[in-house]
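Below is one record:
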Amino acid sequence: MELDDSSVVCLLKKVLVVDDETDIAEVVKQGLELQGMQVDAFNDPQKALQHFRPDTYEIVVLDIRMPRMNGFQLYREIMKRDDNTKVLFITAFEESPEEFRKAFPELDTRRFMKKPFTISKLKDRIMQGIVVKGPRQDTPRGLTD
C-alpha cells in the first residue's frame, strides 16, 4: 500500500518548531497548521525543552543558531529524552554539509534546510523526514534545498 501526502499528514502526531526569531516561529507554525499539521512553536529553546515529552512529536524543526542554547545542544538534550525523534535543522548561515558531518556523523545531510524557505518546501522536507527510515545516507543536495 502506498501513502500519499494527505495520508501521512493524518498519521502525524505533532511537529515541534523552535526558532529564536518569534516571527519565523509563528509564520512556520501557522503555515504548517494550514497544511493540516499540529504544531507547537517556541522561540526559547529552554522552554521548548521543558515542554518536550517523549513520543509526542513526530519531527522537531530546530533553528541552529539561537542564544543560550543552540540547535545542536537542544538536539542532544532531546535525544537524551527520546532518541527516536526525527529532527530537521534550519539555518540562515552557509555551513557546509561536511562541517555538519564532522560534528554529527550520525546525521543525514537531508536533516538540514537553508533559510529562506517556503512553507510548501518545509512541508515536503518534513514529510520526507517522517517517511525516510534506515541508516544515514549521503546526498549531494546538502543545504541548498
Summary: Residues 5-131 form a domain with the Rossmann fold fold (CATH 3.40.50.2300). The chain has six helices and five strands. Residues 6-10, 133-145 have pLDDT under 50 and may be disordered. The first helix runs from residue 5 to 11.
